[in-house]
């Protein structure tokens, strides 16, 4: 085994630990390292569905894992093992060329996310209309545009579509698309290396600033301070600002009131869970893009059973395509029920503690194991008490059962938590709205 193969195996071992058995076995295990050359890892994959799924769900995971092991940046090139459709190959080549050209200008947009590939329905038509209007005259209307909605409902697609449209209409404009996490990391790096001047010059001279998942700056004082001044500077020079979040400005905890006020200055638009008809249309659109043929009954079956989000919906189709391509089996209801049995709902099921834990974990950014464990920091204790309170509100479990589910707490601890959170809800409107948001998310899932 060569040295590079050792690093490859070590990186994939870390990926396995991070993702768990089911995701790793299906999507990552079939990959094979072909060779390394000039800091590029060439990877063989069974078919294009693997590439699409990785690009949509974990676009940087492999390169980041290899960089940790090798100690320097690594690019990843995926080589499809089966013969590709000629038209799809041209589309992929065109997208890759566009991605590279934009990246050379410091613009990191996903070329696949455009208005043409966005399926419009009652759940998102307001956001779609507002986004298109912005592209007609960036900075002159709906500034900022604040887009919010649950995970996997199309916020990232929409914010990239805005960027791609503006790039085409106004080639000379300076555009930055960043996640809030990336923005935070840049702030930290600039402070550490005493390069805040460069950082400020970069972002405060943008014509368009697109920021994804702004809720991640909650609790980060230095990042909020810098974003506040960046926002003010861009707004004063009529640069367009577009922000996405998984919740409305008033529901984001641990951000300053002045920043929350800035988020609310323009237009706030939400994306809702799509109805069955829109989900069917999304499936057919995705199938067409992937050169897949799916029967009507399969599309309606998946659309009616996948209740979480669009990302899961498209993930089901990609998994079907990958399985069908590898086995040669046609896509029908029998295949769907077999291949997607772990992903599709079999009807209404009793609400479990695990569902509540996931919602609390996602909202507060705290690991589920810590919420169930014995750690007693202020943040963890608060999240744990809210989880107990919601469990009491939404399940038929006894106080003792709830206590056991949270690391063996007794029923008196659960009673105390429920009374405390009820009292806090009455006194703290932000907390009240936050809990309502979590409950809505749990019920929707």
Task: Please tell me about this protein's structure.
- This protein is an alpha/beta fold and 445 residues long.
- The chain folds into four domains: 3-83, DnaA, N-terminal domain (GMP Synthetase, Chain A, domain 3, 2-Layer Sandwich); 125-271, 3-Layer(aba) Sandwich (Rossmann fold); 290-339, no CATH class; 353-444, DnaA protein, C-terminal DNA-binding domain (Chromosomal Replication Initiator Protein Dnaa, Chain: A), CATH 1.10.1750.
- It has helices at residues 3-19, 21-28, 48-57, 61-70, 86-104, 125-136, 155-169, 180-192, 196-204, 221-236, 257-263, 276-289, 296-305, 310-327, 333-339, 353-364, 368-372, 378-394, 399-405, 411-427, 429-444, and strands spanning 32-37, 40-45, 75-80, 145-149, 175-179, 208-212, 240-245, 267-271.
- The strands form two sheets. Strands 5-6-7-4-8 form a five-stranded parallel beta sheet, sandwiched between helices. Strands 1-2-3 form a three-stranded mixed beta sheet.
- The chain starts with a helix and ends with a helix.
- The mean pLDDT is 87.
List the helices and strands and how they pair.
Layout: H1 3-19, H2 21-28, E1 32-37, E2 40-45, H3 48-57, H4 61-70, E3 75-80, H5 86-104, H6 125-136, E4 145-149, H7 155-169, E5 175-179, H8 180-192, H9 196-204, E6 208-212, H10 221-236, E7 240-245, H11 257-263, E8 267-271, H12 276-289, H13 296-305, H14 310-327, H15 333-339, H16 353-364, H17 368-372, H18 378-394, H19 399-405, H20 411-427, H21 429-444
Helix pairs in contact: 1-2, 1-4, 3-14, 6-7, 8-9, 12-13, 12-14, 16-18, 16-21, 18-20, 19-20, 20-21
